[in-house]
């Protein structure tokens, strides 16, 4: 048996890549002098055994970078998250340990913006039900009469890269876009007008959520909030599943407060756990909800762009 020992200099240049990423990251990181150890199939137990020999970790969503991982990573200087959110990383503890955190929101913002528009158009024009009915021998024009986006007010909660991308994609539809962001002010631009949360609730015909998952946003879209919307809305969530209570969305659909919902993310994702949720049967039966499997930000183009953004930000650390 061989035991590999690495010098401090070698460790300072080693990156463990624990998830599938585009090879452009490896190419660009190695041009900077790093050595990349590409192990996309590694499990948490395996990572714990070797993470102490690396200065960097690249992760998507395979496991949480929590206290256990961070404590085992004695030489860790940075973590790159191949995506937008940082909710699978213990950010305060990492910062306490002076570990730099890199994400790549810019890499998949166009993908998310386009996906949200796609969900919205599909809902407003009954694409899912019309397709299913025709395949079952039904030709129902009146039942599938759609709504036009033109003239509607689209409310956005969260005006970072994703929220702005969605607003930008809507700019040709002749809609009014209003946006609320608790942590930003003075962000009105050609694509959206900054407003209060009260104005979002009062004026929106469409609500789209683009916030990270935090203790504050967990369960933000709930029965109480949806009850206060003045008009029936179309609802889009491409952010994080736990931001919106699925049961609350179903309740609002039943009450006519939500005309249709496009959910790319759910409170519980993947099977078999998803099928075990008390709300899943009702979700399946609703023809006013379109579901996609957390793929809004995961296109062929964003796969490369995410890695390019991570590599560029890594270069800024040196």
Describe the structure.
This protein is an alpha/beta fold and 318 residues long. The chain folds into two domains: 8-103, 3-Layer(aba) Sandwich (Rossmann fold); 107-291, 3-Layer(aba) Sandwich (Rossmann fold). 36% of the residues lie in helices and 15% in strands. The protein is built from 13 helices and twelve strands. Helix 2 (23-31) links the parallel strand 1 and strand 2 (35-38).
CATH level-four homologous superfamily name of the largest domain: NAD(P)-binding Rossmann-like Domain
Largest sheet properties? 7 strands, parallel
What's the multimeric state? single chain
Trace the largest sheet across and list its strands.
8-7-6-9-10-11-12
Q: CATH fold name of the largest domain, please? A: Rossmann fold
Q: Structural class of the secondary structure composition?
A: alpha/beta
What proportion strand? Answer: 15-25%
Identify low-pLDDT runs: 1-5
Short synopsis of the structure:
By secondary structure, the protein is of the alpha/beta class. Helices cover 36% and strands 15% of the residues. The protein has 2 domains: 8-103, NAD(P)-binding Rossmann-like Domain (Rossmann fold, 3-Layer(aba) Sandwich), CATH 3.40.50; 107-291, Rossmann fold (3-Layer(aba) Sandwich).
